[in-house]
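Hi Q.,

Before the meeting this afternoon, I wanted you to have the NAP prediction in hand. No need to reply - just skim if you have a minute. The sequence and ligand are here:
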Amino acid sequence: MKPLNLILGSSGKTGSRIVKKLNQLNIPIRLGSRKSNPSFDWEKSESWETLIKGVDHIYISYQPDLAVPTSIHHIQTLVDLAIKCKVKRLVLLSGRGEPEAITCEKLVQGSGLEWTILRSSWFSQNFSEGMFLDAILQRKIIFPKIKIKEPFIDLDDLTDLAVDSLVNQKHVGKLYELTGPTLYSFEETFSFIANEIKESIPFEEIPLKDYISMLGDFGLSEETIWLIQYLFETVLDGRNEFIQNDFEIAMGRKPKDFKYYAKETAKSGVWNSKF
Ligand SMILES: NC(=O)c1ccc[n+]([C@@H]2O[C@H](COP(=O)([O-])OP(=O)(O)OC[C@H]3O[C@@H](n4cnc5c(N)ncnc54)[C@H](OP(=O)(O)O)[C@@H]3O)[C@@H](O)[C@H]2O)c1
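Predicted structure with the ligand bound:
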């Protein structure tokens, strides 16, 4: 019998891709999000057992981010329940350069279960499915003044490795630091997109503190603003400004470059102006 895989964050950027690929491979899955049935909510641990019972492998994508203070308690609770329910393998999506994420990774690594850690750089798809899409559609980027470059990873690559980690034994006990093949500044990434859609996307840099107060004016929640500030001050302070070849070691091919992502994604029309 094929192992049953529970995908947490099953409707999200990574989860939905993993679900699609496992379906194509005819691998049994169970969905885990607040809208799945049964539902899964990180804030309601009393209801997790129904979903976890009978599952062999769990893909863990935490919400909103392993950097938030509640993550450690939630991941510990999940690990304990996974052990109780005799789950065999945990595949954790983690973030680079976040001390709290490292603590969560250690909880998974120390669980006694089979584990794989996917410690990922920023997703290319943040520009088409995430936090930067609206600004691109409005053709105006206001961005904090940061001088670092980031090795964006394409989610098609991350998905391939996540699925392989769920399906195959060879990634058990491996911590992969996943980056794309090239470091790019944010200004460069927006300019690649502008180039592909053949429109100008003005890019203005402002001090981080002005950017954060601008987010407050937009009505974002305190938690979201805290997380964005944390990401810009901590994850994007230069500590992650390097490339790792773990993806190539794991999958035997090079990861996709951001420029390729920009070219292919432009064809989908997602960046066509809606205003
Ligand atoms: N974006 C990046 O560049 C980046 C880089 C490295 C690591 N990461 C990590 O990636 C993870 C996010 O993964 P993703 O981008 O694939 O997800 P996502 O696109 O942000 O989607 C969120 C998913 O989680 C579910 N969800 C939201 N709130 C929930 C809650 N309280 N309880 C249970 N499920 C909830 C959503 O479905 P429902 O609405 O139905 O609940 C949805 O399926 C985070 O841990 C983040 O730190 C992101």
